[in-house]
C-alpha cells in the first residue's frame, strides 16, 4: 500500500498538471461564456427591437377590435358580436401592405361559406357527416377557382359556423356578413384615418437591421482581409447568409408604407418620399447577394494565400460606409450624395488594389466591389447606365484595351471619386 501511495503524483504535482491543462480549458470556457453573453445580449436586443416594431400594430389592433365590438353591439344590435372584432384583428394581422386585399378576401370567404352551408343544410340537414361534407366542398370549390389561402380558410370556417349554429341560432347569415364588413371596414378606418402610422418611420425601422447587417459584415470582411483571418471572414459570410428575415421585413414594410400612403389622406404627401425606398428594395437585395460573393471569395483569397493589396480592405470599408450613409440619408430625406461618393471611392480603391496586383480570387473580389457599388448607386436613385459609366470612370482605364496587366506596376493613384452629374 505504501509503495502504491508512493507511485501516485504528489498533491502539489497533480495540482500543477491541472493548472497546465486549465490554461487551455479556461481560455476555451472563457471564450464560450463570452460568446453566450454576447448572444444573449443580441437576442434580447433583437426581441426588444421586434417589440418596438410591433407596438404600432398592437395599438391599431386593440383600437380596431374595441371599435368593431362597439359598432356591432351597440349600433347594429348584435347581442354577440364575436366575429366583428375577429375580422378587424384578422385584417390587421395580415401582411402589412395587404390589408385592403385581406378585407375583400374576408368578405368573399364569408359569402362562399354561407352559400355552401345554406345549400347543403337545405338538402342534407345538419350533423357530423354533413359538417365534414360542407367543409370539404368549401375548400375544394375555393381552391378550384384559384382563391388565396385566406379565402379558403374563411370559407371553411364560415361553413362550420353555419352548419353547427344554424339549428340553435336563427338568421345567422346576415349578422355574419355584417360583421365581416364592420370588422374589415373598421380595420381599414383605423389604419387610414384614426391611427395611421408614419410610413417613413416604419420603413426606416425595418431597413435598419438589413442595411446594418450588410455594413457590419463588410467591415468584418475588411478586417479579416487585413489580418488574413479566414475564420472571421467565414463568420461574416455565414451571418450575411442569414439575412432573409431582415430583407423580408424590409420588403414588407415598403409594401405597407405604400398602402398607408394610398389609403390615408394624412399620409398622401409622403408618396414622393416613399419612391426612393420602393425603387431601392431590389438593388439593395442585389447588393446583399453580391456582397455575399465578395466575402466568399475573400475567404478563398485567405485560404490560397493570395496577395491582399492594402487598398483592397479599404475598398470594402468604403462599401460598408456607403451602406450606412445610404440608410441615414434616406431616413432624413436627403439626396444620398455622400453615399454615392463613398461607393465611387470604394471603386477607386479597388482600382488601386488591381494596379498593385491580385490573384484569381482577388480579381473576383475587385469585380464584386464594382458590382456592389453599382447596386448601391442604383439604390440611391442613379440610372443603371449612368451608374455603370461612373463605376468605369472611378475604376480607371483598366477596362479599355491596353489597360490591365501592363499597368499593374504603375504608381498608385490617389483614392479620389469623380464628381457626379
From TrEMBL:
- Ranges for domain Integral membrane bound transporter: 67-190
Query: Which Pfam family, an example, fits this chain?
Result: FUSC_2
Which keywords does this chain's UniProt record carry? Coiled coil, Membrane, Transmembrane, Transmembrane helix
Q: Does the keyword Transferase apply?
A: no
Write down the membrane topology: Multi-pass membrane protein
Coiled-coil spans in chain: 233-260
Q: Does the keyword Coiled coil apply?
A: yes
Top-level taxonomic group? Bacteria
Q: Compositional bias (Pro residues) spans?
A: 412-421
Give me the segments passing through the membrane. Answer: 51-70, 82-100, 107-125, 137-165, 177-197
Q: What is its main location?
A: membrane
Location(s), subcellular: Membrane
The record, for InterPro entries, names:
Memb_transporter_dom
For the region Disordered, give the residue spans.
394-421
Under what name is this protein listed?
Answer: Aromatic acid exporter family protein
What does the organism's lineage look like at the top?
Bacteria, Bacillati, Actinomycetota, Actinomycetes, Micromonosporales
Amino acid at each position: 500500500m505504501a509503495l502504491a501511495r508512493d507511485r501516485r503524483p504528489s498533491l502539489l504535482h497533480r495540482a500543477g498538471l491541472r493548472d497546465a491543462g486549465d490554461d487551455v480549458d479556461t481560455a476555451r470556457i472563457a471564450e464560450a461564456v463570452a460568446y453566450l453573453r454576447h448572444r444573449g445580449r443580441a437576442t434580447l436586443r433583437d426581441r426588444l427591437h421586434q417589440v418596438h416594431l410591433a407596438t404600432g400594430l398592437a395599438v391599431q389592433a386593440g383600437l380596431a377590435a374595441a371599435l368593431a365590438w362597439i359598432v356591432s353591439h351597440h349600433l347594429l344590435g348584435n347581442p354577440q358580436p364575436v366575429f366583428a372584432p375577429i375580422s378587424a384583428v384578422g385584417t390587421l394581422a395580415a401582411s402589412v401592405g395587404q390589408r385592403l386585399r385581406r378585407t375583400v378576401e374576408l368578405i368573399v370567404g364569408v359569402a362562399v361559406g354561407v352559400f355552401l352551408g345554406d345549400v347543403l343544410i337545405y338538402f342534407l340537414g345538419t350533423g357530423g357527416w354533413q359538417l365534414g361534407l360542407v367543409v370539404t366542398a368549401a375548400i375544394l370549390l375555393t381552391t378550384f377557382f384559384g382563391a388565396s389561402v385566406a379565402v379558403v380558410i374563411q370559407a371553411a370556417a364560415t361553413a362550420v359556423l353555419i352548419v353547427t349554429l344554424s339549428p340553435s341560432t336563427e338568421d345567422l347569415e346576415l349578422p355574419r356578413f355584417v360583421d365581416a364588413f364592420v370588422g374589415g371596414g373598421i380595420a381599414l378606418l383605423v389604419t387610414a384615418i384614426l391611427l395611421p402610422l408614419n410610413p417613413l418611420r416604419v420603413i426606416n425601422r425595418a431597413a435598419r437591421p438589413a442595411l446594418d447587417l450588410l455594413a457590419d459584415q463588410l467591415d468584418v470582411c475588411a478586417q479579416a482581409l487585413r489580418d488574413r483571418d479566414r475564420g472571421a471572414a467565414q463568420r461574416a459570410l455565414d451571418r450575411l447568409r442569414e439575412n432573409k428575415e431582415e430583407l423580408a421585413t424590409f420588403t414588407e414594410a415598403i409594401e405597407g408604407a405604400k398602402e398607408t400612403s394610398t389609403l390615408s389622406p394624412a399620409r398622401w404627401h409622403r408618396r414622393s418620399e416613399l419612391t426612393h425606398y420602393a425603387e431601392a428594395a431590389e438593388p439593395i437585395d442585389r447588393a446583399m447577394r453580391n456582397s455575399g460573393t465578395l466575402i466568399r471569395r475573400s475567404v478563398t483569397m485567405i485560404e490560397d494565400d493570395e496577395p491582399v493589396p492594402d487598398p483592397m480592405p479599404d475598398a470594402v470599408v468604403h462599401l460598408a460606409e456607403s451602406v450606412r450613409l445610404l440608410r441615414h440619408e434616406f431616413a432624413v430625406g436627403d439626396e444620398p450624395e455622400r453615399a454615392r461618393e463613398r461607393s465611387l471611392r470604394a471603386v477607386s480603391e479597388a482600382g488601386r488594389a488591381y494596379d498593385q496586383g491580385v490573384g484569381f480570387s482577388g480579381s473576383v473580389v475587385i469585380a464584386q466591389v464594382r458590382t456592389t457599388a453599382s447596386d448601391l448607386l442604383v439604390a440611391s436613385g442613379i440610372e443603371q447606365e449612368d451608374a455603370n459609366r461612373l463605376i468605369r470612370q472611378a475604376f480607371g482605364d483598366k477596362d479599355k484595351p491596353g489597360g490591365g496587366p501592363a499597368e499593374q506596376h504603375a504608381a498608385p493613384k490617389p483614392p479620389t471619386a469623380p464628381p457626379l452629374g
